[in-house]
Amino acid sequence: MPMPVADDEVEVLIVGGGPVGLTARGLLERWGVRTLLVEKRRELSPFPRSRLVNTRSMEIFRLLGLAAGITAEAFPPQFGRVRFRDTLHDPDFASAAMVGVNAPIHESPVTGVVTSQDRLEPLLLAAADAPTRFGAEVVGLAEEADSVVALLLDRERGTQSRVRARYVLAADGANSTVRQRLGTGTTGPGALAAFTTVVFDADLSQWCAHQPAGVYVTAHGSFLPLYPEGGWAWLAPTPEDPERADWAGLVSRALGPGADVRAEVLRVQHWVMNAFVAERFRHGRILLAGDAAHAIPIIGGLGMNTGIADAHNLCWRLAGALRGWAGPGLLDTYEVERQPVAHQTLRQAVANTDLMFQAQTLRREQLRTGGAAPSTIQLPWSERYFAQLGLVLGVTYRSAAVLVEGNGDCPPPESPEASEASEASEASAHYTPTADPGRRMPHLWLSPDRSTLDAFGEWFTLLTPDPARWERQSAPAWPLRVEALAGEQAGLCGLSAQGALLVRPDGHIGARWQDGPPDGSALCRALTRITGTASV
């Protein structure tokens, strides 16, 4: 049977023009990979949607040269807080800090920010020159031995075209067309509730300017400041008859009696809060990322950030497969590493949601029992519940792309059960930097303005206090740089004067030699096993 004729050919077709797809486009361009991004909407989303860019995502955006620009468009750090109130114009009865956002942390060279997705996406779009095609919907996929042919439909023009790609990266959201066409199932609660976001203008500064926050949670929905210069969103359960709803009236009533504020409604969006993880992240040459792979409830701001980490984990693998320095098995380790993270993140987000509701339930009970309600309540979690650095920075990968302790030669077991147990043990409020294989390389200052994280990019990095010894190791088949560590820094990483860390392009440690190379081929052998290439 003849192969379908393609109108265009690329190395990677990215489906979905949200933050995950746009981040993947930027990362792959740095690797020199030819991509085409297609998005069924005719433009970037005008809705604020995701609001929190966490520390790890900002580290990835620092790599892309975007961190400073994103910070400049975002709210200042004091907005990194959630406040609980009876109504917006009442005092706080509880609050919780967004750790890593409300102030700098010594574990990272960057600080997360509160910003709106419609401010973030244009910056991501401008960060790469690779072609994009808005208004193009994937309506068919044909997998072949060495490529995938996608059928694209422009509904406005009524035209179709075909694109042949070596790989497809599907980041097309929780209702992913690609995932559904593959027949990939999901696990988890599924649809939790229907919500509506109302974007509006109103002057609410008299109640918020002196106590800034990224989110104000009230008994009548949540209020979110959208931009430093103004604008608000109200988030609440969708009413029974949304088509006839008086949104301006609903927002005004939600502000509480006596507020005397009339909202000017600009846009209204209905959406469903989903909670699931795809059963598979890979189907041949098609890979799922972001909400297409896992839909995470919004409480805690974990969903978009988890997807951005997916892209960072996946893009170097795609580059290796396309450029020949990685074997086909390396792409299998994407699911092995990221699916357990998705499950743990989903559990954390569901717990966040439950505990937020508990705080509101406690307050309602206080008010129901009569008498003078206390000005504050004891939250059902401590301040550090929103300090999710153990999940954000402390993930441990366990796969064939990570070599265990010793001489850096032995991969750990690759069973999903062992992998998920490892992730769960590391995912907590606490983060302790370590240089163990599988962990994100700790942030250490190599110079006053250069972090260890700045040493990583489109290459493997060997960090060692003895560069001359390790530069004698031959590994010409892989992109590799050797970077010097000071003796004190080496000690913090558990290395002797001749030891070394092999850091993958995604910043996670692939192998560690505490006492120097055991022989002249140790580095080549480690890279061979991490990338799944032929034995040496």
Please describe what this structure looks like.
This protein has 536 residues and is of the alpha+beta class. Helix content is 28%, strand content 25%. The chain has 14 helices and 24 strands. It has helices at 19-30, 55-63, 67-73, 117-126, 177-182, 205-208, 247-254, 303-323, 332-368, 389-392, 416-426, 467-471, 487-492, 522-531, and strands at 8-15, 35-39, 52-53, 81-85, 92-97, 113-114, 132-134, 137-143, 148-154, 159-170, 186-201, 215-218, 221-225, 232-237, 264-278, 282-283, 286-288, 294-295, 445-447, 450-451, 460-464, 480-484, 500-503, 509-513. Strands 1, 2, 7, 8, 9, 10, 16 and 17 form an 8-stranded mixed β-sheet that branches. It has an 8-stranded mixed β-sheet with strand order 5-4-12-13-14-11-15-18, sandwiched between helices. It has a 4-stranded mixed β-sheet with strand order 22-21-23-24. Helix 1 links the parallel strand 1 (8-15) and strand 2 (35-39). The two termini are 39 Å apart. Mean pLDDT is 89; it is low at 413-422.
Percent of residues in beta strands: 25-35%
Radius of gyration: 24 Å
Specify the helix fraction band.
Answer: 25-40%
Mean pLDDT figure: 89
Oligomeric composition of the shown chains:
single chain
Shape: globular
Largest sheet: 8 strands, mixed
In whole angstroms, the N-to-C terminal distance is 39 Å
- What is the overall number of helices? 14
Using DSSP, what is the number of strands?
24
| Unreliable stretches | 413-422
Structural class: alpha+beta
